[in-house]
Design goal:
Helix content: 10-25%
Structural class: alpha/beta
Largest sheet: 25 strands, mixed
Mean pLDDT: 81
Distance between the termini: 148 Å
Number of strands: 27
Low-confidence stretches: 7-25, 355-369, 371-394
Strand content: 35-45%
């Protein structure tokens, strides 16, 4: 009997060890704390005092859709993945392995390397309250993440906004950038600060772009994708860039873009630029709202570029003005959206002395004129009365 009980206890203990091992591998914590300076991967990561040091360890501890709170400077620590000796991301060893929110906390998270993601990542990654202190921040290239990935970038600061601040080359399910600040640096005169090439859903809202006259463009949408892009660009402040929003949809996938309530200040080439790629196949539809504002020295609202064959993008086929407005061709490839001209109605009415009818057809009073009516009745009665009196006298 004792031998049987011992056997059962041994089995229970073995199963318990398996369960603990499995739990550690998949992660059980809602929140894991990381400190890239003082953290220690032998700790449990449950509090800021017990923070682990690396994202790799945090991914082992946090559960799916959990939060990783990061404090510290990532200069010395290969936070996002293994790095080569020159501090660039090496291929194949990336540490974001599940849907998670990575959030700067405490004294903040300062990243100078930029992030990399594995090619098989198809989850949802939210980056929140992070200072990106390098010019290349979030660059995902053709060998990067999978087509079902969702990227959300919230309340981050791009302090040296130059090349590849947010550059997404592979097709992803969605990209959302909200509440962020971009500060341009020298060397960005040919660069766009946000450039999703193939994202299916794009939302860029409530951001501030301070180009300082050093940046080519704030936002670039498309370059051709297997599926149409649906983009919403609202409530942004775009300052000191050459181009505000550039679109380069060229594959005839009926992409749609809504642009409204943005302020374009000191934008030199155009608040909205229709790239020359669109001249050949203008199937995109752009709704340009009445809430957009041109400020400072910004004078060009919508600019249609010319393709290599000299044919300009047909803005009239692409841009839809809001209700009560119209797209006006200003010449030389420039357009603006202005209140629609009020044309006189053909259904007007006027009084004609050649008729005494009271119908509503053209040439007659629309409504009965009381003064004219009284005059007519009085005249009739007067004539009738005179005839009756004359008859009686005879």
């Amino acid at each position: 009997m004792k031998k049987w009980i011992a056997t059962v206890l041994a089995l229970v203990l073995a199963l318990g060890l398996c369960s603990v091992s499995w739990a550690a591998e998949t992660g059980t914590l809602d929140t894991v704390f990381v400190n890239t300076t003082s953290g220690d991967d032998t700790k449990d990561g449950t509090t800021s005092e017990n923070a682990v040091k690396s994202l790799k360890k945090a991914m082992e501890l946090v559960k799916e859709s959990g939060t990783v709170k990061v404090e510290g400077q990532t200069t010395a620590n290969p936070f996002w993945g293994d790095q080569s000796t020159d501090k660039t991301i090496a291929g194949g060893h990336y540490y974001v392995t599940k849907s998670v929110t990575i959030e700067g906390t405490g004294n903040g998270m300062h990243d100078i390397h930029g992030i990399a993601l594995p090619s098989d990542f198809n989850g949802k990654l939210t980056l929140r309250n992070i200072d990106f202190d390098g010019t290349a921040a979030i660059g995902i290239y053709d060998n990067g993440i999978g087509s079902q990935a969702e990227l959300v970038i919230e309340n981050c600061r791009f302090n040296k906004a130059g090349s590849n601040c947010v550059f997404i080359a592979p097709e992803v399910k969605s990209l959302t950038v909200t509440g962020c600040t971009f500060t341009g640096v020298d060397g960005a005169s040919t660069q766009y600060l946000i450039w999703p090439k193939l994202a299916k859903e794009v939302t860029i809202t409530n951001n501030t772009f301070n180009g300082g006259g050093k940046v080519k463009g704030a936002i670039h949408l498309g370059d051709g994708g297997a599926e149409a892009m649906n983009a919403t660009i609202t409530d942004n402040k775009i300052n000191g860039v050459a181009r505000g929003v550039t679109m380069a949809f060229a594959t005839g996938k009926n992409d749609t873009v809504s642009i409204d309530n943005n302020t374009f200040t000191d934008v030199t080439e155009g608040a909205v630029v229709l790239h020359e790629n669109m001249a050949a196949n203008p199937t995109a539809k752009v709704t340009y709202g009445a809430g957009n504002v041109l400020a400072g020295t910004t004078a060009k609202e919508i600019v249609a570029k010319k393709g290599n064959n000299g044919t300009a993008v047909d803005a009239a086929k692409i841009v839809e003005a809001p209700a009560g407005s119209e797209l006006v061709d200003n010449g030389d490839g420039m357009y603006s959206v202005k209140p629609a001209e009020q044309k006189p109605s053909n259904n007007y009415y006027y009084y004609s002395p050649s008729t005494t009818t009271t119908d509503t057809t053209k040439g007659s009073p629309k409504t009965f004129d009381a003064g004219v009516g009284i005059y007519a009745v009085t005249a009739v009665l007067s004539v009738t009365g005179m005839a009756w009196v004359g008859k009686k006298r005879h």
